[in-house]
Specification:
The chain has 690 residues and is mostly helical. The chain folds into 4 domains: 127 residues, Four Helix Bundle (Hemerythrin (Met), subunit A); 211 residues, no CATH class; 114 residues, Nucleotidyltransferases  domain 2 (Four Helix Bundle (Hemerythrin (Met), subunit A)), CATH 1.20.120; 135 residues, Up-down Bundle (Four Helix Bundle (Hemerythrin (Met), subunit A)). It contains 25 helices and 2 strands. Strands 1-2 form a two-stranded antiparallel sheet. Strand 1 and strand 2 form a beta hairpin. The longest helix has 50 residues. It starts with a helix and ends with a helix. Keywords: Cytoplasm, Cytoskeleton, Phosphoprotein.
Length: 690
């Protein structure tokens, strides 16, 4: 069991009740329990039912604390530097739990011989002291366990960085394969630790930042593989090295960002994203002017004027944009002017109300507050319409990915002029997408969505440049299969981000129109949906399996590309299996054609004809294919993610064998061709002699 798993167990203890219910042992639960017990009136008649309930709760607290202490002691035994502190806190928690159990042990309270017994009814002070000790000791253990988790994440990051440095300097393909295998395992461990941490975070803003950083690392792992292989294949190609360096740089930034989040240490000079959001500024401004109703001296005149000017200056991102239509630009400017005029009117009435506190002045102040609030709401609507319409139009125009297809074609043709033309078009497309992401950030409505907009902006900015460098490498080496594969990987990342932007746009609209969270409530059976949702451990396990499956898919594709006869039956079946496995990998990232767990299970139900053809050719796959089919057809009620886990595990086993078989079949095919050539040559020689 990892530290993070133990920490999760420790931070979500459960007191078992009747009817198999569960109550998390958190600070508020303990406070509610103690408050209820000490507020019980001494002169109230105590029924047997009440006494039994009190005793049951006290014992449950003690049992839960006992489980908590066991986890704490296990963490202490594995961390000698914190062992003494954790053990002391565990002893205090255990003592407090036992005290509460003893004070609530009132089974014999109504018997004559129990007159001198100390209970919760005779020693309320003792209960309060025990409760305080329990809360402080539990909090201390959790804080110390948290330090252990942070230390483990930092150690894991350092291991990843050290291996990355070795990968940057590697010169031989064989050495690269060995080091990358180690790197893959370290990245899986890091992904698991940070995934647990992300689920534990309570701050939605930090959670969104962690999700963005982890997404970068996950996607860059595949990019690093192909970019590094391209560099090794073409060591003197400048664009290949530029492409590879871009991946390494982005991964290092993302690793640093994760550490900033878990240690809560921002680098000096970093600005808060919320300070550049127009919607956040409008929300704060409205709160300030509405506070004038209660306190006329709450704000200064200058502060309100400056705050509004800052908001209106930020609208210049919309009015100065080359992509904003003339009608939208005019309407934004009109509403900005109106807001300035209404603020002047508000300030005038406000000054009057400070000296003349009459009913009519108060009503006029209320009216001016409502007017400027209405104008700002109209401005918000116009900004929202402008940004979302631009985004929707842009996504629609780039849905077919014409420029990416053209870059791939010019690459394999070695067409440098075509490369220059389409690289320019992609740069224009990139600038449009970056600009729209900035506008969406202003109107996103929540901090997590603002962070997602920033992530999208950075992804388009970086990936656009990397696609161009990858396309340049392919154009200079048009027959290079690895250069083509590398370009494909970066193009897939671009297409994936376009898909993510569509989801982001939908979420921004949901927030603006107040529809956020309606999907679950509108479902006919929300309970069944809830039971299908994976917990943190299941998500981490699926993500880990998916990453390994993605790497195996890349290995399989490399073996397939070695075959000269791409229509060979083994190659065709291998390609189909590789494609299916890649779909599963995309599913674990929330991407690709498989949208639900049921889609994934159907994907693995092979047609009988295809299955027989494959099994007849490759006998070694029979057991695994049989097991895979059994898993897909076995009903597991309310355990869909267990089924997904098994499906991916079995597919991984199949892919591992497939990689070996493709390599072996390729060698045998070459050997057979050589034998045929020798046979034909010998026959010709004999005929000549005859």
């Amino acid at each position: 069991m990892t530290y993070s798993q133990k920490y999760a167990i420790a931070s979500t203890l459960f007191i078992r009740r009747e009817k198999n219910e569960a109550l998390p042992l958190k600070r508020r639960n303990i406070e509610q329990l103690i408050t209820t017990l000490i507020n019980h009136k001494d002169n109230t008649k105590k029924s047997d039912k009440t006494l039994q309930a009190i005793q049951r709760v006290g014992q449950a607290v003690n049992l839960a604390v006992g489980r908590f202490v066991k986890v704490g002691e296990a963490i202490a035994n594995e961390n000698w530097d914190l062992k003494e502190e954790i053990n002391i806190a565990c002893i205090e928690a255990k003592q407090a739990g036992e005290t509460i159990a003893a004070l609530t042990d009132i089974s014999s309270l109504n018997h004559p011989e129990s007159d001198g017994q100390i209970t919760i009814f005779t020693d309320k002070t003792g209960v309060i002291k025990a409760a305080r000790l329990l809360l402080s000791s539990v909090t201390k253990v959790l804080l110390l366990a948290d330090r252990v988790v942070i230390k483990q994440i930092i150690t894991s990051r350092n291991k990843v960085l050290a291996t990355m440095e070795r990968l940057e300097k590697v010169n031989s393909f064989q050495e690269f394969v060995q080091i990358f295998s180690q790197f893959g395992n370290e990245m899986v461990e890091f992904a698991h630790l940070t995934g647990d941490r992300q689920n534990d975070l309570k701050d939605e803003k930090k959670k969104a930042k962690m999700a963005a950083a982890r997404a970068v690392l996950e996607k860059c792992t595949m990019m690093l593989l192909t970019a590094s292989k391209t560099c090794l294949r073409h060591p003197n190609c400048e664009s290949a090295h530029k492409n590879k360096e871009g991946v390494f740089d982005r991964m290092k930034v993302a690793l640093d960002k994760v550490i900033e989040i878990v240690t809560d240490c921002k680098p000096s000079g970093e600005t808060d994203i919320s300070s550049v959001s127009i919607f956040t500024g409008i929300k704060e401004f409205k709160m300030n002017i509405e506070a004038l109703r209660e306190n006329l001296y709450f704000q200064s005149k200058e502060n309100l004027s400056v705050t509004l000017e800052v908001i209106l200056e930020r609208t210049e991102d919309f009015t100065d944009s080359a992509y904003t239509s003339h009608e939208h630009r005019e309407r934004i400017l009109e509403l900005s002017t109106q807001a300035r005029l209404e603020l002047q009117q508000l300030l005038s009435v406000w000054i009057q109300s400070q000296s003349n506190k009459t009913k009519s002045i108060a009503e006029e102040l209320e009216l001016t507050v409502l007017k400027i609030s209405h104008s700002l709401n109209e401005l918000k609507k116009e900004l929202h319409r402008t940004a979302t319409q631009l985004a929707a139009d842009l996504l629609k125009s780039h849905a077919d990915h014409v420029v990416l297809k053209a870059l791939k074609l010019t690459g394999v043709e070695g067409n440098l002029e075509g490369l220059a033309e389409y690289a320019c078009k992609l740069s224009e497309q990139k600038e449009q997408l970056v600009e729209v992401c900035r506008l969406l950030r202003h109107i996103s409505g929540t901090e997590p969505l603002e962070i997602t907009c920033v992530h999208a902006e950075e992804t388009f900015q970086v990936t656009g440049q990397q696609i161009i460098s990858a396309a340049e490498t392919l154009t200079l080496h048009p027959s290079s299969k690895i250069a083509k594969e590398n370009l494909d990987v970066f193009c897939e990342a671009w297409e994936s981000q376009i898909g993510d932007m569509s989801t982001l746009l939908r979420e921004i609209n949901d927030v603006f129109e107040g529809r956020r969270g309606e999907k679950l409530s509108n479902n006919a059976n929300p309970k069944s949906l809830k039971s299908d949702k994976p917990d943190a451990e299941e998500q981490a396990k699926i993500a880990k399996l998916g990453l390994k499956l993605g790497l195996l898919t890349s290995d399989a594709n490399c073996e397939i590309k070695k075959w000269e006869d791409q229509e060979n039956e083994i190659v065709r079946n291998g390609r189909n299996m590789s494609s299916m496995a890649y779909s599963l990998y995309l599913f674990t990232r929330g991407e690709g054609p498989l949208r639900t767990s049921q889609d994934l299970i159907h994907q693995l139900e092979l047609k009988d004809d295809d299955k027989l053809m494959l099994l007849l050719e490759i006998n070694k796959l029979i057991p695994f294919c049989h097991q895979l089919q059994t898993v897909t057809k076995t009903p597991l009620q309310n355990q869909v993610f267990l089924k997904v886990d098994k499906c991916i595990t079995k597919t991984r086993s199949v892919m591992a064998i497939l990689v070996q078989l493709l390599s072996l079949c390729y060698k045998l095919l070459k050997k057979l061709e050589n034998n045929r050539w020798v046979s034909v040559t010998n026959k010709d020689s004999v005929d000549g002699k005859t």
